[in-house]
UniProtKB/TrEMBL annotation:
Record domain Pyrrolo-quinoline quinone repeat: where: 79-309
Primary localization class, coarse: membrane
NCBIfam families named in the record: assembly_YfgL
Function of the protein: Part of the outer membrane protein assembly complex, which is involved in assembly and insertion of beta-barrel proteins into the outer membrane.
A Gene Ontology cellular-component term: cell outer membrane
Keyword Membrane: yes
SMART domains xrefs: PQQ
Gene behind this protein: bamB
Membrane topology: Lipid-anchor
Keyword entries, A-Z: Cell outer membrane, Lipoprotein, Membrane, Palmitate, Signal
Protein name: Outer membrane protein assembly factor BamB
Amino acid sequence: MRDVIGWKHAALLALAILATGCSSNSTKELPPAELTSFKEEVVLHKVWSRSIGDGQGETYNMLVPAIDGDTIYAADVTGIVMAMDRSNGDVKWKKELDVPVSGAVGVGYGLVLVGTLRGDVIALDTINGEEKWRARVTSEVLAPPASNGDIVVVQTQDDRLIGLDASTGHQRWVYDSTPAVLTLRGTSAPLATNRLAVAGLSTGKVVALDISNGVPVWEQRIAIPQGRSELERVVDIDGGLLLSGGTLYVASYQGRVAALDLESGRQLWQRDASSYAGIAQGFGNVYVSLSSGTVEGVDERSTTALWTNDSLARRQLSAPEVFSSYVAVGDLEGYLHLLSQVDGRFVGRERIDSDGLRARPLVVGDTIYVYGNSGKLEALTIK
Protein backbone atom coordinates (compact mmCIF):
# COMPACT_ATOMS: atom_id res chain seq x y z
CA MET A 1 0.00 0.00 0.00
CA ARG A 2 1.35 3.40 -0.89
CA ASP A 3 2.52 5.73 1.89
CA VAL A 4 0.22 8.43 0.58
CA ILE A 5 -2.78 6.39 1.60
CA GLY A 6 -1.97 6.80 5.28
CA TRP A 7 -1.78 10.57 4.76
CA LYS A 8 -5.03 10.54 2.89
CA HIS A 9 -6.83 8.69 5.65
CA ALA A 10 -5.42 10.98 8.32
CA ALA A 11 -6.64 13.92 6.32
CA LEU A 12 -10.15 12.55 6.12
CA LEU A 13 -11.13 14.17 9.37
CA ALA A 14 -12.32 16.73 6.80
CA LEU A 15 -15.13 14.39 5.76
CA ALA A 16 -17.68 15.79 8.18
CA ILE A 17 -16.83 19.32 7.06
CA LEU A 18 -17.03 18.41 3.40
CA ALA A 19 -20.26 16.51 3.80
CA THR A 20 -22.02 19.43 5.37
CA GLY A 21 -20.81 21.79 2.67
CA CYS A 22 -18.95 24.15 4.98
CA SER A 23 -15.98 26.05 3.64
CA SER A 24 -12.47 25.65 5.01
CA ASN A 25 -12.74 29.17 6.43
CA SER A 26 -15.85 28.47 8.49
CA THR A 27 -15.50 29.17 12.18
CA LYS A 28 -18.69 27.41 13.20
CA GLU A 29 -20.39 24.46 11.59
CA LEU A 30 -24.09 25.03 11.01
CA PRO A 31 -26.48 22.29 12.12
CA PRO A 32 -28.62 20.30 9.68
CA ALA A 33 -31.71 22.17 8.55
CA GLU A 34 -34.89 21.45 10.46
CA LEU A 35 -37.47 19.52 8.49
CA THR A 36 -40.27 21.65 7.13
CA SER A 37 -43.92 20.64 7.14
CA PHE A 38 -45.79 20.02 3.89
CA LYS A 39 -49.03 18.57 2.62
CA GLU A 40 -48.51 14.83 2.30
CA GLU A 41 -49.58 13.57 -1.11
CA VAL A 42 -47.90 10.14 -1.08
CA VAL A 43 -47.91 7.53 1.69
CA LEU A 44 -45.33 4.74 1.77
CA HIS A 45 -46.30 1.24 2.88
CA LYS A 46 -43.74 -1.15 4.35
CA VAL A 47 -43.86 -4.51 2.57
CA TRP A 48 -41.11 -6.17 4.61
CA SER A 49 -38.11 -5.40 6.80
CA ARG A 50 -34.94 -7.36 7.55
CA SER A 51 -31.88 -6.71 9.72
CA ILE A 52 -28.47 -7.10 8.03
CA GLY A 53 -26.04 -7.41 10.96
CA ASP A 54 -24.33 -4.15 11.95
CA GLY A 55 -25.06 -2.35 8.69
CA GLN A 56 -22.56 0.38 7.79
CA GLY A 57 -20.80 0.15 11.16
CA GLU A 58 -19.15 2.99 13.06
CA THR A 59 -16.82 4.16 10.27
CA TYR A 60 -17.88 5.90 7.07
CA ASN A 61 -18.76 2.97 4.80
CA MET A 62 -20.98 3.01 1.74
CA LEU A 63 -22.34 -0.54 1.57
CA VAL A 64 -25.09 -0.72 -1.01
CA PRO A 65 -27.40 -3.69 -1.69
CA ALA A 66 -27.77 -5.09 -5.20
CA ILE A 67 -30.64 -6.77 -7.02
CA ASP A 68 -30.39 -9.57 -9.54
CA GLY A 69 -33.64 -11.07 -10.78
CA ASP A 70 -35.92 -11.88 -7.85
CA THR A 71 -33.14 -11.70 -5.25
CA ILE A 72 -31.70 -8.79 -3.29
CA TYR A 73 -28.22 -9.14 -1.80
CA ALA A 74 -26.85 -7.09 1.09
CA ALA A 75 -23.74 -7.10 3.30
CA ASP A 76 -22.74 -5.55 6.61
CA VAL A 77 -19.41 -4.21 7.86
CA THR A 78 -18.56 -7.39 9.81
CA GLY A 79 -18.77 -9.67 6.77
CA ILE A 80 -22.35 -10.93 6.88
CA VAL A 81 -23.71 -11.39 3.35
CA MET A 82 -27.36 -12.25 2.81
CA ALA A 83 -29.51 -13.18 -0.16
CA MET A 84 -33.24 -12.51 0.20
CA ASP A 85 -36.35 -12.89 -1.89
CA ARG A 86 -37.03 -9.30 -2.91
CA SER A 87 -40.80 -9.78 -2.86
CA ASN A 88 -41.12 -10.86 0.77
CA GLY A 89 -37.67 -10.62 2.40
CA ASP A 90 -37.34 -14.35 3.05
CA VAL A 91 -33.68 -15.32 3.50
CA LYS A 92 -32.36 -17.64 0.80
CA TRP A 93 -28.90 -17.94 2.31
CA LYS A 94 -26.59 -16.22 4.76
CA LYS A 95 -22.79 -16.24 4.76
CA GLU A 96 -20.50 -14.98 7.52
CA LEU A 97 -17.11 -14.06 6.05
CA ASP A 98 -15.62 -12.79 9.35
CA VAL A 99 -13.68 -10.05 7.57
CA PRO A 100 -14.32 -6.25 7.58
CA VAL A 101 -16.34 -5.60 4.44
CA SER A 102 -15.99 -2.10 2.97
CA GLY A 103 -17.03 -2.52 -0.68
CA ALA A 104 -20.38 -4.19 -1.34
CA VAL A 105 -22.35 -5.50 -3.08
CA GLY A 106 -21.59 -6.28 -6.72
CA VAL A 107 -23.71 -8.98 -8.33
CA GLY A 108 -24.11 -10.57 -11.74
CA TYR A 109 -23.18 -13.56 -13.90
CA GLY A 110 -23.55 -15.96 -10.99
CA LEU A 111 -21.30 -14.05 -8.59
CA VAL A 112 -21.82 -11.92 -5.49
CA LEU A 113 -18.75 -9.70 -5.08
CA VAL A 114 -17.53 -7.85 -1.99
CA GLY A 115 -14.31 -6.02 -1.10
CA THR A 116 -12.62 -5.69 2.28
CA LEU A 117 -10.55 -3.22 4.28
CA ARG A 118 -7.71 -5.74 4.09
CA GLY A 119 -7.62 -5.50 0.32
CA ASP A 120 -9.39 -8.75 -0.52
CA VAL A 121 -12.03 -9.36 -3.15
CA ILE A 122 -14.35 -12.26 -2.35
CA ALA A 123 -16.65 -13.94 -4.86
CA LEU A 124 -19.63 -15.98 -3.67
CA ASP A 125 -22.06 -18.14 -5.62
CA THR A 126 -25.37 -16.32 -6.11
CA ILE A 127 -27.36 -19.53 -5.60
CA ASN A 128 -26.02 -20.75 -2.27
CA GLY A 129 -23.39 -18.28 -1.02
CA GLU A 130 -20.54 -20.75 -1.43
CA GLU A 131 -17.16 -19.01 -1.73
CA LYS A 132 -15.84 -19.37 -5.28
CA TRP A 133 -12.53 -17.54 -4.86
CA ARG A 134 -10.68 -14.86 -2.92
CA ALA A 135 -8.07 -12.48 -4.38
CA ARG A 136 -5.73 -9.94 -2.78
CA VAL A 137 -5.44 -6.48 -4.36
CA THR A 138 -3.23 -3.45 -3.64
CA SER A 139 -5.29 -1.64 -0.97
CA GLU A 140 -8.72 -1.47 0.62
CA VAL A 141 -11.78 -1.76 -1.59
CA LEU A 142 -14.40 0.86 -0.75
CA ALA A 143 -16.88 0.28 -3.59
CA PRO A 144 -18.60 -2.78 -5.09
CA PRO A 145 -16.60 -4.64 -7.74
CA ALA A 146 -18.25 -5.02 -11.15
CA SER A 147 -18.22 -7.86 -13.67
CA ASN A 148 -19.12 -8.52 -17.29
CA GLY A 149 -18.98 -12.28 -16.77
CA ASP A 150 -15.39 -12.61 -17.96
CA ILE A 151 -13.56 -9.93 -15.98
CA VAL A 152 -14.18 -8.59 -12.47
CA VAL A 153 -13.19 -4.92 -12.24
CA VAL A 154 -12.05 -3.62 -8.85
CA GLN A 155 -11.25 -0.03 -7.90
CA THR A 156 -9.00 0.37 -4.87
CA GLN A 157 -8.54 3.30 -2.50
CA ASP A 158 -5.14 4.04 -4.06
CA ASP A 159 -6.86 4.78 -7.41
CA ARG A 160 -5.83 1.57 -9.13
CA LEU A 161 -8.15 -0.41 -11.38
CA ILE A 162 -7.57 -4.14 -11.35
CA GLY A 163 -9.00 -6.75 -13.69
CA LEU A 164 -9.51 -10.22 -12.20
CA ASP A 165 -10.52 -13.40 -13.98
CA ALA A 166 -14.19 -13.94 -13.12
CA SER A 167 -13.77 -17.71 -12.90
CA THR A 168 -10.63 -17.91 -10.78
CA GLY A 169 -9.88 -14.47 -9.33
CA HIS A 170 -6.42 -14.46 -10.93
CA GLN A 171 -5.16 -11.02 -11.88
CA ARG A 172 -5.37 -10.23 -15.59
CA TRP A 173 -4.22 -6.58 -15.57
CA VAL A 174 -3.60 -3.47 -13.43
CA TYR A 175 -4.11 0.18 -14.33
CA ASP A 176 -2.08 2.62 -12.20
CA SER A 177 -3.18 6.17 -11.47
CA THR A 178 -1.60 8.66 -9.10
CA PRO A 179 -4.20 9.58 -6.46
CA ALA A 180 -4.86 13.11 -5.27
CA VAL A 181 -3.06 14.25 -2.13
CA LEU A 182 -6.31 14.71 -0.22
CA THR A 183 -9.56 12.89 -0.93
CA LEU A 184 -12.91 12.07 0.54
CA ARG A 185 -13.14 8.59 2.01
CA GLY A 186 -14.45 6.31 -0.68
CA THR A 187 -14.43 5.71 -4.42
CA SER A 188 -17.10 5.51 -7.05
CA ALA A 189 -18.05 2.00 -8.10
CA PRO A 190 -16.55 1.00 -11.47
CA LEU A 191 -18.70 -0.07 -14.41
CA ALA A 192 -18.04 -3.11 -16.59
CA THR A 193 -19.43 -3.55 -20.11
CA ASN A 194 -18.54 -6.09 -22.77
CA ARG A 195 -15.83 -3.73 -24.06
CA LEU A 196 -15.00 -1.20 -21.36
CA ALA A 197 -14.09 -0.84 -17.69
CA VAL A 198 -15.03 2.68 -16.59
CA ALA A 199 -14.16 4.45 -13.33
CA GLY A 200 -14.11 7.89 -11.72
CA LEU A 201 -10.88 8.88 -9.98
CA SER A 202 -9.91 11.08 -7.04
CA THR A 203 -8.27 13.53 -9.46
CA GLY A 204 -11.62 14.42 -11.03
CA LYS A 205 -11.07 12.30 -14.16
CA VAL A 206 -13.10 9.51 -15.70
CA VAL A 207 -11.11 6.79 -17.42
CA ALA A 208 -12.30 4.02 -19.74
CA LEU A 209 -10.11 0.96 -20.28
CA ASP A 210 -10.23 -1.94 -22.67
CA ILE A 211 -11.71 -4.49 -20.29
CA SER A 212 -9.77 -7.36 -21.83
CA ASN A 213 -6.30 -5.93 -21.13
CA GLY A 214 -6.59 -2.72 -19.09
CA VAL A 215 -5.26 -0.45 -21.86
CA PRO A 216 -6.77 3.08 -21.75
CA VAL A 217 -9.34 3.82 -24.46
CA TRP A 218 -10.23 7.36 -23.39
CA GLU A 219 -9.88 9.78 -20.49
CA GLN A 220 -12.03 12.80 -19.68
CA ARG A 221 -11.54 15.41 -16.96
CA ILE A 222 -14.75 16.33 -15.15
CA ALA A 223 -13.35 18.71 -12.54
CA ILE A 224 -10.26 20.93 -12.30
CA PRO A 225 -8.81 21.43 -8.80
CA GLN A 226 -9.06 25.08 -7.76
CA GLY A 227 -8.22 27.04 -4.65
CA ARG A 228 -5.18 27.61 -2.46
CA SER A 229 -5.60 24.85 0.10
CA GLU A 230 -5.63 21.09 -0.51
CA LEU A 231 -9.11 21.00 1.00
CA GLU A 232 -10.39 23.48 -1.56
CA ARG A 233 -8.77 21.41 -4.34
CA VAL A 234 -10.56 18.14 -3.55
CA VAL A 235 -12.41 17.04 -6.69
CA ASP A 236 -13.18 13.38 -5.97
CA ILE A 237 -15.61 11.43 -8.09
CA ASP A 238 -17.17 9.46 -5.24
CA GLY A 239 -20.80 9.25 -6.29
CA GLY A 240 -21.70 6.25 -8.41
CA LEU A 241 -21.35 6.49 -12.18
CA LEU A 242 -24.68 6.12 -13.93
CA LEU A 243 -24.99 4.47 -17.34
CA SER A 244 -28.19 4.92 -19.31
CA GLY A 245 -28.13 3.63 -22.87
CA GLY A 246 -24.95 4.98 -24.41
CA THR A 247 -24.69 7.94 -22.03
CA LEU A 248 -22.52 8.02 -18.92
CA TYR A 249 -23.50 10.43 -16.15
CA VAL A 250 -20.97 11.52 -13.54
CA ALA A 251 -20.67 14.10 -10.77
CA SER A 252 -17.64 15.26 -8.80
CA TYR A 253 -17.11 17.04 -5.52
CA GLN A 254 -16.37 20.76 -6.04
CA GLY A 255 -16.55 20.27 -9.80
CA ARG A 256 -19.28 19.45 -12.27
CA VAL A 257 -22.05 17.10 -13.22
CA ALA A 258 -21.61 15.92 -16.80
CA ALA A 259 -22.89 13.54 -19.45
CA LEU A 260 -20.38 11.67 -21.61
CA ASP A 261 -20.65 9.48 -24.66
CA LEU A 262 -19.69 6.04 -23.36
CA GLU A 263 -17.80 4.83 -26.42
CA SER A 264 -15.71 7.95 -27.11
CA GLY A 265 -15.69 9.85 -23.82
CA ARG A 266 -16.90 12.96 -25.65
CA GLN A 267 -18.57 15.41 -23.30
CA LEU A 268 -22.22 15.92 -24.24
CA TRP A 269 -22.94 18.56 -21.61
CA GLN A 270 -21.74 19.81 -18.25
CA ARG A 271 -22.94 21.94 -15.37
CA ASP A 272 -21.13 23.29 -12.31
CA ALA A 273 -22.02 21.23 -9.25
CA SER A 274 -20.56 19.67 -6.12
CA SER A 275 -21.69 16.17 -5.17
CA TYR A 276 -20.14 13.27 -3.31
CA ALA A 277 -23.36 11.21 -3.43
CA GLY A 278 -24.38 10.80 -7.06
CA ILE A 279 -27.12 11.38 -9.57
CA ALA A 280 -30.26 9.83 -11.03
CA GLN A 281 -31.80 10.17 -14.46
CA GLY A 282 -35.30 9.93 -15.84
CA PHE A 283 -37.79 11.57 -18.23
CA GLY A 284 -35.03 13.61 -19.91
CA ASN A 285 -33.92 15.10 -16.61
CA VAL A 286 -31.01 14.54 -14.24
CA TYR A 287 -31.41 14.73 -10.47
CA VAL A 288 -28.43 15.57 -8.25
CA SER A 289 -27.87 15.45 -4.48
CA LEU A 290 -25.46 18.33 -3.93
CA SER A 291 -22.95 18.32 -1.09
CA SER A 292 -24.75 21.31 0.45
CA GLY A 293 -27.92 19.24 0.89
CA THR A 294 -29.71 20.85 -2.03
CA VAL A 295 -31.47 18.61 -4.55
CA GLU A 296 -31.61 19.82 -8.14
CA GLY A 297 -33.54 18.73 -11.18
CA VAL A 298 -31.64 19.56 -14.38
CA ASP A 299 -33.00 19.58 -17.93
CA GLU A 300 -30.56 17.60 -20.09
CA ARG A 301 -31.39 19.58 -23.23
CA SER A 302 -30.69 23.02 -21.83
CA THR A 303 -28.53 22.02 -18.78
CA THR A 304 -30.51 24.55 -16.75
CA ALA A 305 -32.06 23.80 -13.39
CA LEU A 306 -35.75 22.96 -13.67
CA TRP A 307 -36.10 23.26 -9.93
CA THR A 308 -34.05 23.47 -6.74
CA ASN A 309 -35.03 22.25 -3.28
CA ASP A 310 -32.70 23.57 -0.58
CA SER A 311 -34.85 22.60 2.41
CA LEU A 312 -32.53 19.66 3.25
CA ALA A 313 -29.42 21.79 3.70
CA ARG A 314 -26.55 20.06 5.51
CA ARG A 315 -28.55 16.85 5.98
CA GLN A 316 -25.87 14.70 4.28
CA LEU A 317 -28.09 13.30 1.55
CA SER A 318 -27.81 9.95 -0.14
CA ALA A 319 -27.73 9.66 -3.90
CA PRO A 320 -31.19 10.23 -5.38
CA GLU A 321 -33.26 7.58 -7.13
CA VAL A 322 -36.22 7.91 -9.46
CA PHE A 323 -39.28 6.19 -7.96
CA SER A 324 -42.52 6.32 -9.93
CA SER A 325 -43.15 10.03 -10.58
CA TYR A 326 -40.89 11.07 -7.73
CA VAL A 327 -37.28 11.50 -6.67
CA ALA A 328 -36.33 9.61 -3.50
CA VAL A 329 -33.42 10.66 -1.30
CA GLY A 330 -32.32 9.68 2.23
CA ASP A 331 -30.72 11.79 4.96
CA LEU A 332 -28.55 11.56 8.08
CA GLU A 333 -31.53 11.18 10.43
CA GLY A 334 -32.93 8.26 8.49
CA TYR A 335 -35.76 9.99 6.64
CA LEU A 336 -36.62 8.98 3.11
CA HIS A 337 -37.93 12.04 1.26
CA LEU A 338 -40.05 11.91 -1.88
CA LEU A 339 -39.89 14.97 -4.14
CA SER A 340 -41.97 15.69 -7.22
CA GLN A 341 -40.04 15.26 -10.46
CA VAL A 342 -42.02 18.18 -11.87
CA ASP A 343 -41.16 20.95 -9.42
CA GLY A 344 -39.14 19.40 -6.57
CA ARG A 345 -41.75 19.96 -3.86
CA PHE A 346 -42.02 17.45 -1.01
CA VAL A 347 -44.82 14.94 -1.52
CA GLY A 348 -43.94 12.22 1.01
CA ARG A 349 -41.63 11.36 3.91
CA GLU A 350 -40.97 8.24 5.96
CA ARG A 351 -38.42 7.62 8.70
CA ILE A 352 -36.66 4.32 8.06
CA ASP A 353 -33.62 4.17 10.35
CA SER A 354 -32.72 6.62 13.12
CA ASP A 355 -29.02 5.92 12.44
CA GLY A 356 -29.37 7.50 9.00
CA LEU A 357 -29.66 6.58 5.32
CA ARG A 358 -26.37 6.78 3.43
CA ALA A 359 -26.78 4.16 0.70
CA ARG A 360 -28.57 4.96 -2.55
CA PRO A 361 -32.13 3.55 -2.58
CA LEU A 362 -32.87 0.85 -5.13
CA VAL A 363 -36.03 0.75 -7.24
CA VAL A 364 -37.54 -2.15 -9.14
CA GLY A 365 -41.03 -1.66 -10.53
CA ASP A 366 -43.33 -0.29 -7.85
CA THR A 367 -41.02 -1.16 -4.92
CA ILE A 368 -38.23 0.89 -3.36
CA TYR A 369 -35.56 -0.81 -1.23
CA VAL A 370 -33.84 1.26 1.46
CA TYR A 371 -30.79 0.15 3.48
CA GLY A 372 -30.30 2.06 6.74
CA ASN A 373 -26.97 2.66 8.43
CA SER A 374 -27.85 0.37 11.36
CA GLY A 375 -28.50 -2.54 8.99
CA LYS A 376 -32.26 -2.24 8.55
CA LEU A 377 -33.27 -3.15 5.01
CA GLU A 378 -36.84 -2.25 4.06
CA ALA A 379 -38.99 -2.71 0.99
CA LEU A 380 -41.72 -0.12 0.51
CA THR A 381 -44.45 0.65 -1.99
CA ILE A 382 -46.80 3.58 -2.47
CA LYS A 383 -50.24 3.06 -0.91
